Amino acid sequence: MRQIQHFFINQSLEADEIEIDDKELLRQMKEVLRFRKGDACVLLDNRGHQAKAILEEFHHKGARFRVESRTSLQRPARTVRLYVALSKKPATLEWIFEKATELGVTELIPLDTERTQVHELRKMERLHSIVKEAAEQCERGFAGRSGDHDAPQ
């Protein structure tokens, strides 16, 4: 039996049928995970709701899911904030963000410190994506926040 995949989507989970048109998410479902009609997944809205949904069809503009059940989630009781000095190697910072999210850190803040060799963070969007994917993989109901890099030092 295949593990049920979790996906964050930027829309409400209130309707009985949900249309998804996020091209990157659809590519992942079709080409990477090879979703077929009838496959189940869990959709998350990052606002405290999740829905178990069944793929009804892929069409030229997206995919249509039928919601089977909905659940409300509780936010973590504590905020775990991790300040991370910018790394010379972007892969190191990405790895730290991924593993920290998997361990339950709720907020990640890159820091520009006195001894940091890199003083500019260029790929914040990539870090947001890594945090979101790590939260999906761990089946967390909320993706952690990755904050701005000029946070208090």
Which features does this protein show?
three-stranded parallel β-sheet; 24% helix; alpha/beta; five-stranded mixed β-sheet; 3 helices; disordered C terminus; single chain; 153 residues
What does this structure look like?
This protein has 153 residues and is of the alpha/beta class. It contains three helices and eight strands; from the N terminus they run ββαββββαβαβ. The strands form two sheets. It has a five-stranded mixed sheet. The longest helix has 14 residues, at 124-137.
Q: Count of DSSP helices? A: 3
Structural class, by secondary structure, is alpha/beta
Main sheet: strands, sense, barrel: 5 strands, mixed
Helicity, in percent? 10-25%
Give the CA-CA distance, first to last residue.
Answer: 48 Å
Overall geometry? elongated
Work out the radius of gyration.
17 Å
Overall pLDDT, averaged?
A: 85
Percentage of residues in strands: 25-35%
Q: What low-confidence regions span 5 or more consecutive residues with pLDDT below 50?
A: 149-153
Order of helices and strands: EEHEEEEHEHE
Order of strands across the biggest sheet?
1-3-4-5-2
- For the secondary structure, the number of strands is 8
Give the helix/strand layout.
Layout: E1 5-8, E2 17-20, H1 23-32, E3 40-44, E4 49-59, E5 62-72, E6 81-85, H2 90-102, E7 107-111, H3 124-137, E8 145-146
Parallel strand pairs: 1-3, 6-7, 7-8
Antiparallel strand pairs: 2-5, 3-4, 4-5
Helix pairs in contact: 2-3
